[in-house]
Amino acid sequence: MLRLVELDKTYPTGDKALKSVDLEVPQGQVLALIGPSGAGKSTLIRCINRLVEPTSGSVFLGDVDLTKLGSGALRRERRRMGMIFQEYALVERLTVMENVLSGRLGYVGFWRSFTRRFPQSDVDEAFRLLDRVGLLEMADKRADELSGGQRQRVGICRALIQNPALLLVDEPTASLDPKTSRQIMRLICELCAERDLAAIINIHDVALAQMFVQRVVGLRFGAIEFDGPPDALTPDVLTRIYGEEDWEATIEKVEDEDEMVTA
Ligand SMILES: Nc1ncnc2c1ncn2[C@@H]1O[C@H](COP(=O)(O)OP(=O)(O)OP(=O)(O)O)[C@@H](O)[C@H]1O
């Protein structure tokens, strides 16, 4: 479904953020991207939808090489990739419903998007999605009246209403408390399973990734250092990815928290 071939990114500053990355993600697979700060996780996610322009290599979404597309064709292909952001990227003064519907802007014509008149089928779908994530009652609230977890749910609905083939998720829980983080990760993974949707989730919390995904890819210095199931992430492997950090302690801390929450 998604295939990266020898993907390279060197920023104008000379930083080599990605070094010949090869990666295949089949339909329906949720993959967590881990690695230390500066490893290239955000760059990888952003090179896929060309928010960051790759230096060389290919990004195939199905049969289409996204790196070869002109701006019009790229805009169309971007509809197939929903993005979820760390800071939610909502329009604060608009309502929850308006924020969700903004995910359809790539589909409706200029005039409709200018006047924000969306087809009834889009409004119906927005209500269905808000209901699914438990925010139906919030549809008319302004985005700035919501908690962090609620905002991220709106961000998830906005990505899903695009009807994407792939979700690109950049640190979805970095601004949330541990319990809300787990709820959001669970929700993203459940929705992907329901829709047979592939996702790449850039996540710095290894324990959280291990709880929810089937596959983990570890980046170090812009290259893939590990690619396997979460239970293969032994302390040795984590040290290979991150360097000398006490990962066992980090993981135990999160497990303790879980017990406290469920106790
Ligand atoms: N716009 C930019 N211009 C120059 N260098 C950049 C730019 N963005 C990222 N880099 C560099 O590219 C490398 C990879 O950065 P990237 O943000 O992709 O890493 P990351 O793994 O997402 O890190 P973090 O977990 O801290 O967000 C780093 O060395 C970073 O300094």
Would you tell me the overall average pLDDT?
88
Proportion of residues in β-strands: 15-25%
Question: Which molecules are bound in this entry?
Answer: adenosine-5'-triphosphate
Category from helices, strands and their pairing? alpha/beta
| Largest sheet features | 6 strands, mixed
The CATH H-level homologous superfamily of the largest domain: P-loop containing nucleotide triphosphate hydrolases
CATH class of the largest domain: Alpha Beta
Order of helices and strands: EEEHEEHEHHHHEHEHEEHH
Radius of gyration: 19 Å
The coarse silhouette is globular
Q: Based on DSSP secondary structure assignment, what is the total number of beta strands? A: 10
Keywords: ATP-binding, Cell membrane, Membrane, Nucleotide-binding, Translocase, Transport
Domain ABC transporter: 2-246
GO molecular function: ATP binding
InterPro entries: AAA+_ATPase (IPR003593), ABC_transporter-like_ATP-bd (IPR003439), ABC_transporter-like_CS (IPR017871), ABC_transpr_PhnC (IPR012693), MetN_ABC_transporter-like (IPR050086), P-loop_NTPase (IPR027417)
Describe the structure.
This protein is of the alpha/beta class. The protein has 2 domains: 177 residues, Rossmann fold, CATH 3.40.50; 75 residues, no CATH class. It is 39% helix and 22% strand. It has 10 helices and 10 strands. The protein has a 6-stranded mixed β-sheet, sandwiched between helices. It has a 4-stranded antiparallel β-sheet with strand order 2-1-4-5. Strand 4 and strand 5 form a beta hairpin. Helix 6 packs parallel to helix 7. The radius of gyration is 19 Å and the shape is globular. The protein starts with a strand and ends with a helix. The C terminus is likely disordered. The protein binds adenosine-5'-triphosphate. Adenosine-5'-triphosphate (ATP) binds next to helix 1.
